[in-house]
């Protein structure tokens, strides 16, 4: 949802700046954000947060109570600000965007590789090394199996798609023959 992403962006950037000011606290903030995002999406919490009768103090108290000692003082303050502005439901998107900012800062790119058959560890390592060299950053590789590819791989990283699958090549050949 573009609207959620747009609303969450300034909060994610603000939290990211706070994390950077705290030294090397990016991993700690990612953990706290993931925790509160999980709480916000669990059980009856979303219904309570959407309730017009629940006050901001009650909503913040619920999140703080469930998370307990998992949150530091700045994170608790963030929860209060979000509750006051009726934005607690944005926490999953804030956590997601914070993760993207963190990955960009750490020069890590997430890469999804779909293959017709399970990739051997040696092949996955070779692909990871080649992509790291090509994009000059660390690669977080995630592999899946898609039997419809027939053979080869489809590599997706951010806005780049490399289709080196048999199915993709056959579709290109069919398009060329039809033209």
Gist of the model:
This protein has 179 residues and is α+β, with helices and mostly antiparallel strands. It has helices spanning 2-21, 26-40, 45-50, 56-67, 73-84, 91-105, 121-135, 166-178, and strands at residues 108-115, 138-145, 152-157, 160-165.
Q: Can you walk me through this structure?
A:
The chain starts with a helix and ends with a helix. It is built from 8 helices and 4 strands. With 179 residues, the chain is an alpha+beta fold. It has helices spanning 2-21, 26-40, 45-50, 56-67, 73-84, 91-105, 121-135, 166-178, and strands spanning 108-115, 138-145, 152-157, 160-165.
Please report the number of helical segments.
8
Our Rg estimate from Cα atoms comes to: 21 Å
Mean pLDDT: 89
User: Regions with pLDDT < 50 over 5+ consecutive residues?
Assistant: none
* Beta strand %: 15-25%
Strand order of the largest sheet: 2-1-3-4
Largest beta-sheet details? 4 strands, mixed
Tell me the total number of β-strands.
4
Which descriptor suits the 3D outline?
Answer: elongated
The secondary-structure class comes to alpha+beta
Euclidean distance between termini CA atoms: 37 Å
Fraction of residues in helix: 55-70%
Strand and helix order:
HHHHHHEHEEEH
């Amino acid at each position: 949802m573009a609207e959620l992403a747009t609303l969450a962006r300034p909060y994610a950037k603000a939290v990211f700046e706070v994390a950077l000011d705290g030294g090397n606290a990016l991993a700690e903030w990612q953990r706290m954000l993931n925790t509160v995002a999980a709480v916000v999406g669990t059980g009856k919490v979303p219904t309570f947060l959407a309730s017009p009768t629940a006050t901001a103090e009650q909503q913040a108290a619920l999140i703080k109570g469930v998370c307990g000692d998992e949150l530091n003082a700045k994170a608790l303050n963030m929860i209060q600000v979000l509750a006051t502005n009726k934005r607690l439901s944005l926490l999953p998107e804030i956590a997601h965007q914070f993760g993207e900012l963190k990955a960009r800062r750490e020069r890590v790119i997430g890469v999804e590789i779909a293959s017709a058959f399970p990739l051997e560890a040696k092949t996955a390592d070779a692909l990871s090394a080649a992509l790291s060299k090509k994009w000059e950053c660390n690669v977080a590789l995630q592999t899946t199996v898609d039997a419809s590819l027939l053979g080869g791989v489809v590599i997706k990283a951010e806005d780049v798609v490399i289709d080196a699958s048999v199915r993709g090549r056959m579709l290109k050949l069919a398009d060329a023959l039809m033209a």
